[in-house]
Amino acid sequence: MSKALVIGNWKMNLDYVEAVHLTQQIAALLASRPVERVDVAVAPPFVDLRSVTSVLEAERASIAVAAQHVSDRDNGAFTGEVSVAMLKRLGVSSVIVGHSERRTMYHMDDALVASTVRAVLRGGLDAVLCVGEDLVTREAEDHESFVSGQLTSALTGVEEFSEHVTVAYEPIWAIGTGMTATSTQIDAMMTTIRTQLASLGFVSSRVLYGGSVNADNAGEIVTEGGVDGFLVGGASLKTESFGAIVHACNDCYAERR
Ligand code: PGA
After folding, report:
1. Is residue 131 a contact partner of residue 98, using CB atoms and an 8 Å limit?
2. Cβ(176) to ligand 1 under 6 A?
3. Annotation marks residue 141 as catalytic
4. Cα separation of 118 and 161, whole Å?
5. Taking the chain, what is the end-to-end CA distance rounded to the nearest angstrom?
6. pTM of the shown model
7. What percent of the chain is predicted at pLDDT more than 70?
8. Domains, the chain, ranges and CATH?
């Protein structure tokens, strides 16, 4: 059986000292109460990555490290950018691509998401592709076709890397708002996404949910929302809440697949 996956997306929070501290705490918590059904990852800011991977190596913790973003270019005159090869060398194993905050605030369009997914996969890292509709699209009941379109645009032609792609469904209206999608809404979207993934040749990708996940709602979303785990923002910044989400996922992720 495949495992669930819980990723803590720290966004632009925690300097490297704070990042070391949180990493040590999470590693200690998972050492004292290990999980068998969940892979755990954290996604710190770029400047924290080396410190976090060093702590995890020293602690021999089985927590993976993801980056929050990456350039679609290999190297060269791209001031401020970071390449896939640079991340790989630091011990990063996956990259979040196309988070809605990058799409809306930094003009990351579908074409750039697609080329970044390609750069990540060809560079030997796993991609965590974020998709999700805004409130206007949801209210117009166009969310299923919108998200299917995002998947088609990002994943057409890279099915050979199927095992290295995770999809995170993150409705924009639920991110950081405290307004979680209902389990019924999530379950319906999981079906839509898995159907679309299958038609694109992706049969083994995990599909996560993200958007105001917390210690109180995580168990129900796993049980009734049909998800393979979570991409967690705000609640990943505290050991207690992140640990509780990981453990809820471990307890509730039964013999799904
Ligand atoms: P949130 O963020 O858990 O704070 O809503 C989720 C995300 O943006 O990945």
Report:
1. yes
2. yes
3. no
4. 9
5. 6
6. 0.97
7. 98
8. 4-256 (3.20.20.70)
